[in-house]
Request: fold
Amino acid sequence: MPDYPLNTLDPSEILAFEPAMKIGMLATITDDGLPHLTMISTLKASSEKGLVWGQFMEGHSKDYIQKRPGVGWLIMTLDRNVWRGKARFTHTATSGVDYDFFNNTPLFRYNSYFGVHRVYYMNLVAHSGKKPLPMNSVVVAAIKTLIGRTVTPSRAKKQVINPWTRDFLNKLDNLKFLAYVDKDGIPVIVPAIQAQAGDPEHVLFSTGVFQADLEAIPAGASLAVFSLALTMEDVLLRGNYEGIRRFAGFRCGSVKIDWVYNPMPPVPGQVYPEVKIQEVRNF
Reply:
């Protein structure tokens, strides 16, 4: 269980969540009970006990959250402060103060192609409070992961992670996040910027940063891995968490990937296992 000691947001935190230029992540649960990660850039606080975000694209997470309302969330601001927590979805709206707020922000007010068409409301369950991102530890953990995945022989039996995705994951300046379903049935998000593709079937991450959070992930759990570039490119992977062991002398967690998804427009879709194209016979 993560350490989320707080159940309200103070005025300074509400203000910190306001800017559009930040990273917002939402962890939901699929119809099969597996963790799913989505970037939600509009995520912000609506009150000391509430969170809100605006929908401007279709996606699986919008369906998942209505069936299983317990979610994990993360906000990372430009000054490298991180908040993590849990919440419960309550309802949506297609009008109102928050709907007007989102559609009057520069991103949507002057956008000729799309705007926020639905607002999602969540009640805060608990959160971590503001935690500075420990960049020195992140850099060291990334180097340890790099050494571990470079020295360790490939264990891959399948080409699950294609070359583009592998190169994208191995960029040390890209952001990465993990998510798993906690014992209470609500997902947990853990920053893992150090995560990298060990081979075409495995993702590795040193436990040298956010150690307690990474060690709390149970071996055998389904683990989602989300990688994001500030150019707004991203990719979502999921697989079986193999636990922590030593790679080139460094303690690293290992995920055996069995599913890869492209969340990017204009055509989001499953990459692996490959979805065969069906010819259209009836019009």
